[in-house]
Write a structure and sequence with these properties.
Helix content is 28%, strand content 26%. The chain is an alpha/beta fold. The chain has three domains: 2-104, 3-Layer(aba) Sandwich (Rossmann fold); 133-194, Dna Ligase, domain 1 (2-Layer Sandwich), CATH 3.30.1490; 200-350, ATP-grasp fold, B domain (D-amino Acid Aminotransferase, Chain A, domain 1, 2-Layer Sandwich), CATH 3.30.470.20. Helix 3 packs antiparallel against helix 4.
């Protein structure tokens, strides 16, 4: 089995590769990695990838030529595509009726484009009450009075697009907002939302040809290098919990079904729905990713190996269980992550809480 993994310089594709190495089915697979940055750490992780290549950006005219040459050279059977720009261009090619270089799990292109824009997603879900009250604006066209009429201080502001908490900050005054917009000079579009002080949750959803096939839930508690970000959110979880929350899955699936209908898409693809709870514990969707996220490996270590599931589906493995499954975990299951280290999955009761002097 020869598998292509794109964007290997990021933590999510690294997590995907490690999940494959955990799988008894794919642990011996030949993994071919690509990235646009010759300095990307993943390009040189010989313990993970059998071969790696630097390629043009997904919006470069030479991108598809490079990908097609790699697929042909290594006889690639399937691709695990995860940087959002590449998911976008692969799904767009598929929706245009053009043949893909190899098999890949991709959502419908109009749905991808909708989810890559947080304002568009929020607007589509606003009538449902599944998303927090929000206000979108361009950096040069901010109507402070209209914003203050809709949202009370403090409120949360972030970039309309992008990941890893791009442009995010808890805003307490108009002056603070104006200063933040000035500092983030490369962000053109922002979205402000009601501040939600509760748990930061996520729900993973795997759809296959019209139906939900697998799901799992988790909680982000702390972030890697949180002190370097004014918001404390860097997009990479250092401490999290693996949860059993069917109500969260139901809410995430309800949102996805609405978005499938909105874009006339068949339920198909892998999505990560992010939630934040209000002071009463009611969860609201803050964004939906069209890909896996960086702690995918921690889920795989605990028995929820979505990367294996996707690979089996794409290779038409007749032994995969076709029944819907919500992955469940032993109560108290947590994971710890850090830079350049494999995650540790354990039970929270095993944490060392006492200082012992020897």
């Amino acid at each position: 089995m020869n598998i292509l993994i794109t964007g290997v310089g990021g933590p999510t594709p690294r997590s995907i590769a490690r999940s494959l190495r955990l799988s008894p089915i794919y642990k011996e697979a030949t993994l071919i990695g690509t990235d646009i940055n010759p300095l990307a750490h993943g390009l040189y992780q010989n313990e993970l990838y059998d071969k790696t290549h630097v390629i043009p950006r997904a919006d470069d005219i030479g991108y598809w030529t490079a990908i097609e040459k790699i697929v042909k050279k290594y006889d690639i059977e399937l691709a695990l595509v995860h940087p959002e720009l590449e998911v976008d261009i692969w799904s767009e090619r598929q929706s245009m009726g053009m043949e893909l270089p190899c098999r890949a799990l991709l959502p419908f292109s109009p749905l991808v484009k909708l989810l890559l824009n947080k304002s568009s997603m929020t607007e589509a879900l606003e009538p449902t009450g599944l998303v927090p009250d929000s206000f979108s604006f361009h950096r040069k066209k901010l109507d402070i009075k209209a914003l203050e009429d809709q949202l009370s201080y403090p409120f949360w502001v972030r970039s309309e697009g992008g990941s890893s908490g791009l442009g995010s900050l808890l805003i307490h005054s108009a002056a603070e907002l104006e200063n933040w917009i000035t500092i983030n000079e490369n962000i053109q579009h922002f979205i402000a939302s009601t501040y939600l002080p509760g748990r930061n949750l996520c729900c993973k959803l795997l759809y296959w040809k019209g139906r939900l096939l697998r799901s799992a839930s988790g909680q982000r508690v702390n972030y890697i290098m949180s002190k370097v970000a004014p918001s404390g959110i860097t997009g990479n979880t250092s401490f999290g919990r693996l949860l059993n929350e069917p109500d969260l899955v139901d809410q995430a699936d309800r949102a996805m079904q609405i978005l499938f209908q909105h874009t006339r898409a068949t339920p198909h693809g892998f999505f990560t729905a992010d939630f934040k709870e209000d002071e009463d514990g009611k969860p609201f969707i803050t964004e939906i990713n069209v890909r896996m996220v960086a702690f995918n490996h921690a889920f795989a270590q605990a028995g929820a190996n979505f990367t294996e599931d996707i690979s089996r589906l794409l290779t038409k493995d007749s032994t995969i269980d076709p029944a819907y499954q919500m992955y469940t975990f032993e109560p108290g299951t947590i994971f710890l992550r850090d830079v350049d280290a494999d995650p540790i999955v354990m039970n929270e009761k095993e944490l060392k809480k006492e200082i012992v002097l020897i």
